[in-house]
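input
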Amino acid sequence: MVVVGAGLSGIGMACHLERERPGTRYAVLEARDEVGGTWSQFRYPGVRSDSDMHTLGYRFRPWTRAETMPGGAEILAYVRETAAEYGVLDRVRPRHRLVAADWDSERARWALRVDHDGTEVELECAFLLMCGGYYRYDGGHRPELPGLGEFSGRVVHPQDWPRDLDHTGKRVVVLGSGATAVTLVPALARDAERVTMVQRSPSYVISLPSADRLAPRLARLLPGDLGHRVVRWRNIAMAMALYQLSQRKPRLMRRVLRKMTVAALPPGYPVDTHFNPSYGPWDQRMCMVPDGDFFAALRSGTAEVVTDTITGFDGDEIQLSSGDTVRADILVTATGFNLGLFGGAELSVDGRPIRTTETMTYLGMMLAGVPNMVYVLGYTNATWTLKLDLVANYLVRLLRHMSDNGYATATPSAPPPGVTEEPFDNLTAGYVRRGLDELPRQGSRLPWRPTMNYVLDTITMRRTPITREMAFGRAGSPDRAWSRPGPPGR
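output
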């Protein structure tokens, strides 16, 4: 068995295997040279979670601190400590990037081509677990900016933040309005002369407490991990309530969010210009800021928001469509990332390429017609790790069923007549729209339609019969994995 990716998802999946299927032979392939995924790569100032850590943390190893949105270094330490505690670190093979995987039906094996420091390595496994997330690590999204070559300052992208960049006393322009931008602004404003966030269109920004005082109290008062479970489910319920209310009563939520924003900003601030999105609440992911630090930076005068578009550059001047200009020493293009499903690896079945847009997702974790492959894509409207736990639990059920019945292959069948195709996701975020040509389709009903609802998924994925619209084969063994060259997984 091979797990692809040693970030939050891959480490979590490996820990589930260690906990629930001890003795499983597996290896974890990591393209980079260290464990941690997003949290080891992203080094920009203020990098942190934009999700509640009591739900982002693994269910089997609760986050025990009061911080709700800790910094990237704290999350990285948590992931690595979890990997060490469950003995996963010695399974990780760094600098192993999956290039291609071909399923051999006759042998019931995946044949993998892996790049290891420029040398091609061949691996084989019976089950492939794709846990590398859904964006490309080799570079973020960089839109075409007219006349950028005329800019005399430095241009950086948060995904590739330079270690030698000193913004102290500098004029910084942050281009973008998403979670990364609203994280960067208050962090940069502490030392910069001035920070200007230039956004083409506004986003919803919500202030949340940076610490949960109830969590440590319940941990002390309730036995075992009951206190952590109570906090986790409370936070899940609150997040779901916010999402459902936003979808069902968008006008009401828009008024509520506007009122909260007005209260967080100085009197007379042009809220309707800079914080009035054209889309409904939760049609795109909302930006969560701890203790309103983003709004505090605006109140202090060290940061400002400009809603406009860039038309050109002249030395240190950034020209805007309104005719105004903004002066900058540093331009930060917090313009999002590029989708890269399966880490860009080429997948095929018996030599026939798998085109994800021509496949349909099964329970949001497998692909119709593709044997012995599971992938993890977290929720877009809730915490990523919630979906990981459900996928891992389903996988364990599937492997147990296969072992008990002597099966070696599990393949979601083709959707039956009557199941119509729909887009994979209904969010309008730019990175989703840009990446639609890489995403599989979804069907009009279960199990071909992901719900994007953790509670419904909890019920569905636990109660859906393993045999439902799933074909099984008997050749081989699902728990054997080996590689050549190099030592096998344990």
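quick obs: Confidence is low (pLDDT under 50) at residues 476-490.
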